[in-house]
Amino acid sequence: MKESDKIKIAVLGAGNLGMAIIKGLHESSLNERLQIVATKRKLPDTLPGSLKNVLFSTDNVVAVQNSDVVIVCVQPGQLPKIAGQIKAFIKDQIVISTITGLTLKDLHHHLGDETRIVRAMPNTAIAVGQSMTCLSSESDAQSVKVAEDIFSCLGKTLLIDDDLMRAATVLGASGIAFWLRLIRATTQGGIQMGFDADEAKFIAVQTSLGAASILAQNAEAHPEREIDKVTTPMGCTIRGLNEMEHKGLSSALIRGLSASYEMISNIKKSVDS
Question: Contact, 116 vs 90, CB < 8 A?
Answer without folding.
Answer: no
